[in-house]
């Protein structure tokens, strides 16, 4: 029987510029990295965790160590789903297993996931919260971006923010992300500005647990559930409240569950978005597999950090491509 060697570590990645979203300012990002080696091949996975679940990255190696014996003796991806809850730890381990399987079998992960190819995808580029003029300047600073996502603050300036960005980027796809910062009243007040700016998508307007206020409403812009949806079991209850589901591998606990989420969303007639909790190309590459099923692709983690691993994904021309990235490649 093959014995698998596992290594767990934490890396710290400083941001080139602070990342601001509703109620938060981040200047660096800690990442949990899982590596598995069978003596010939190595697989790697990366997790950032879910910040609003109080999932400290510093604790992740110790949590992973609890599974060491089973992992070293060949724990499978399906078995992993039963051993750990959805989390950044499970995400990193799950993706490391996918990567190792591709290297051992000679079959790319995307093909094992049932795809016939791994297409380049239009990739959203996120703009941190700032004053309206500064967000417009930030939009102009990324002229190759075909799709922009504006972080909203719920502070009364959001309408001005979207108008300012639309005025300088008339042809771009624009989505906005409230990160739970709105109330039902401020959401309704914001819609005229969003309509005027031809906003294409609004993510998570209300706080988790307040989604019932969205039930059955005929909103002029599609709404996407983010913080309100974690795994496939959450989706059915949201079908009458949101039109789009945002799948993130850290929330789902890995690519295995993320693909199940995509299947469930399609079954319910909902559109699909793939997002990220930030990270390097090691985390975005498995997201590209989910992205093949998606209407919106938000895998801009390395762009927000401002740097990436060597041999990362190719983000040129407002797209994301496999490029030189070897994750999941045979």
Would you kindly provide a written description of the structure presented here, covering whatever features stand out?
The active site is at residues 151, 248. Keywords: Isomerase, Magnesium, Metal-binding. It is a single chain. The protein is an alpha/beta fold and 330 residues long. The chain folds into two domains: 5-106, Enolase-like, N-terminal domain (Enolase-like, domain 1); 121-320, TIM Barrel, CATH 3.20.20.120. It has helices at 60-65, 68-72, 77-83, 88-105, 109-112, 132-140, 158-168, 184-196, 249-252, 255-267, 281-291, 301-305, and strands spanning 5-21, 24-37, 42-47, 121-122, 124-127, 147-151, 173-177, 201-203, 223-225, 244-247, 271-274, 296-297, 319-320. An eight-stranded parallel sheet has the order 5-6-7-8-9-10-11-12. A three-stranded antiparallel sheet has the order 1-2-3. Strands 4-13 form a two-stranded antiparallel ribbon. Helix 6 runs parallel beside helix 7 (158-168). It is globular. The relative contact order is 0.15. The model has no long low-confidence stretch (mean pLDDT 97).
């Amino acid at each position: 029987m093959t014995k698998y060697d596992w290594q767990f570590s934490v890396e710290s990645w400083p941001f080139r510029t602070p990342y601001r979203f509703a109620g938060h300012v981040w200047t660096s990002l800690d990442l949990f990295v899982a590596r598995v080696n069978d003596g010939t091949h190595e697989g790697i996975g990366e997790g950032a965790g879910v910040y609003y679940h109080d999932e400290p990255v510093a604790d992740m190696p110790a949590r992973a160590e609890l599974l060491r014996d089973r992992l070293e003796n060949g724990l499978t991806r399906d078995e992993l789903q039963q051993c750990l809850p959805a989390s950044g730890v499970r995400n990193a381990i799950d993706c490391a297993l996918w990567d190792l399987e591709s290297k051992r079998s000679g079959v790319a992960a995307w093909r094992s996931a049932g795809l016939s190819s791994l297409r380049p995808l239009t990739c959203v580029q996120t703009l941190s919260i700032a004053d309206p003029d500064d967000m417009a300047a930030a939009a102009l600073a990324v002229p190759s971006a075909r799709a922009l996502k504006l972080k909203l603050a719920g502070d009364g300036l959001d309408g001005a923010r979207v108008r300012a960005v639309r005025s300088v980027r008339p042809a771009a796809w624009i989505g906005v992300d409230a990160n739970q910062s709105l109330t039902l009243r401020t959401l309704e007040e914001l819609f005229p500005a969003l309509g005027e700016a031809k906003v294409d998508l609004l993510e998570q307007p209300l706080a988790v647990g307040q989604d019932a206020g969205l039930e059955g409403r005929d909103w002029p812009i599609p709404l996407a559930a983010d913080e309100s949806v974690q795994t496939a079991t959450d989706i059915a209850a949201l079908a009458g409240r949101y039109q789009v589901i945002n799948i993130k591998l850290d929330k789902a606990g890995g690519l295995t569950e993320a693909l199940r989420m995509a299947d469930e969303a399609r079954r319910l007639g909902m559109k699909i978005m793939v997002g990220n909790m930030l990270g390097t190309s090691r985390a975005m590459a498995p997201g590209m597999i989910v992205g093949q099923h998606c209407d919106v692709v938000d895998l801009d983690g390395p762009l927000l950090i401002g740097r990436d691993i060597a041999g990362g994904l190719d983000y040129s021309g407002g797209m994301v491509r496999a490029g030189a990235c070897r994750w999941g490649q045979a």
